[in-house]
Amino acid sequence: MRADRLLSILLLLQVHRRVTARDLARRLEVSERTILRDMDALSATGVPVVAERGAGGGWSLLDHYQTKLTGLSAAEIQSLFVARPPRLMADLGLKHEAEAALIKLQASLPAASREQADFARERVLIDTRGWRDPAESIACLPVLLEALWRGRQVRFQYSKVLCEPSERTGDPLGLVAKGSTWYLVANMDGEPRTYRVSRISQAAILDEPGARPADFDLAAYWERSAAEFREKLPRYYATFLASPAVMRWVRYRGWRLEQETPEGDRIRVRLRFDAEEEAVQFALSFGGDIEVIEPHELRAKALAGALAIAGIYKE
User: Fold this and answer.
1) Domains in the chain and their CATH numbers?
2) How many angstroms separate the CA atoms of 38 and 74, rounded?
3) pLDDT of 69-85, one tens digit each?
């Protein structure tokens, strides 16, 4: 609704002081032309919105103007009170503070609105842990968080997989929780980089102030970085003929299953693996209930593995 959008624009300007039409259009999911029409409407109602051109420009409110029109809809209230993942808040050392903040917010709501808050808290729980989540060390997380709050550089040891730890010094830009795994985003040599917190050790806050690019957007960076990471994941494709008896195990790895087609009394399946070695292990794991069709190199390796196994048991 347009009235809701005008109020959202007003509150965004009040919070951020100056926002470009492009940013407003992106946040509110409308065109820039729509934003310009909305600005005309706000101005016509007496709201002192002004536009500044050039670098660093944008829309803003005249100094000291403030609205108290902060009424929340039922859906907005519910979105605020959907339970935060308690483990992640505890990781940040903010579990009790988050609970206290929600209690205060709920107490400030009218009685009818409190019912919406209770409704959300009693019906939605977000648990970020997987069923087999390994226990990862996040001992350095409080240090990294403090460096972020204080705007200071941080130095730490970082251990890549199968590599010796190496020292890194940079400007922390943000912390991201992917599921229940924490990542540090930091500027290193002028470029943002991502580091798994469980691989960080000996973190120390430095006296030097951290430099944060004025246009850095943590959410946008993470979306872009995650997409690039997914594109670079190794992929190895193989085709098998499987008996119906093993299909439940094939489908159990549903994210690997690219295609399945009935073929006589068996089923042709195309699967995706991370590496050829993984495909060999899969080919040998079901004995005669599964046969490699292609690639031919994989078929040859499966045959060699099967003969080696048969030789061991024959002896």
Assistant:
1) 2-61 (1.10.10.10), 74-123 (no CATH), 141-232 (2.30.30.520), 236-314 (3.30.70)
2) 24
3) 556 777 777 777 776 78
